[in-house]
Amino acid sequence: MTLDSYRKYVREGIETKISHIASEYKKSLGMNDPVSDFTLNAVISSAIKGKLNRALLFYIGTESTRDFTDSSLSIACALEIIQTSYLVQDDVSDNDRMRRGEPSVFVQLEQMLSKTTQQADTLSKHCTYWIGDAGFHIASALLSKHASTDIQSVILNECIHTDMGQIQDLIYSQSTTFPESSLIIQMYKNKTGRYSIGLPLVCGLSYIQSSQQNKNLAWEFSDILGFIFQVTDDELNCTGSQNHTGKPVGSDIREGKKTYHLTHLYARATSQDKKTLSALYQKNIRTDDDINTILQMMHSYGISDHIKKQLNIESDRAMKIIDTMNINYKSKQFLQEFSQSLVTRTK
């Protein structure tokens, strides 16, 4: 079985369980108004629109390839609902109006509310934060029923790390200076590595009561893979296609996000180019011409080529960690394929 075929098998189980969860909440809440339906769809039903990496990594951690139990499916679904809820709120914070090629939740809600309310643009953003909170509470309810206290504890702890990373990201995006690359790496660990990779993998290992050494190696592995994932994401935002990524090229630059690419560019730039960059990031928002100027600078300084070499080195480190983990052969194979897919992905 390849990772792709295993992913399809996991998806089948998650889609069935998510549909059941959505149906149960619609019945138990007894609320049939359009906004309630919209909320449940936004944080539960929409959870299956992504790649389901967290559910995938959770099951890799459990070393199981068949016969998923109701409790394990509930935990995997909770991880995906948490992820969806973060994305719902993140789009408001970043004012990202597109998500996976579709209007973001707050944009969809704005369109719906504009027919019957005043200031629908502001109202939709406020309501969307509550929609995200509803998703977190639904996930918490699932976990309280199906997960051990150890798994619940690690999820809550890593959500706090993610919250800190999100706060750092927002503050850096409004900063007129350029943080050191070490601070950006720490932010990536908080908001991506530990949460997106380490958390589901450690939850899976905890589910089968694996050793603490395995869990420690999983956290070390996640720091590396989180860096690879986020930096690749940054690269795609600079050079990818909106048809693949679902976001306009250069949207991170427009919003002022301080990425690893940007800190490397600033570190390598001449004094004159540093002044140009500083002037561009003093602006509230960058135009298409500004974005092109920065992208051309990155090309001139060979930023992408330099970072790609670094990603290959980090990928080799991740592979060595996988070799030392005391897990079955199939889980090792899946983790190796997953690691490689992050380096070569195009969306």
Briefly, what is this?
With 347 residues, this protein is an all-alpha fold.
Written description of the protein model:
With 347 residues, the protein is mainly alpha-helical. It has two domains: 1-147, Orthogonal Bundle (Farnesyl Diphosphate Synthase); 149-347, Farnesyl Diphosphate Synthase. 77% of the residues lie in helices and 1% in strands. The protein contains 16 helices and two strands. The protein has helices spanning 3-29, 34-43, 53-61, 70-94, 105-113, 120-146, 149-174, 181-207, 212-239, 242-245, 251-255, 260-268, 271-280, 288-300, 303-324, 329-344; strands spanning 98-99, 102-103. Strands 1-2 form a two-stranded antiparallel sheet. Strand 1 and strand 2 (102-103) form a beta hairpin. The radius of gyration is 21 Å and the shape is globular. The mean pLDDT is 92.
State the CATH superfamily name of the largest domain.
Farnesyl Diphosphate Synthase
Rg over CA atoms, rounded to whole Å, is 21 Å
H/E series = HHHHEEHHHHHHHHHHHH
User: How many β-strand stretches?
Assistant: 2
Strand order of the largest sheet: 1-2
Q: What is the count of helical runs? A: 16
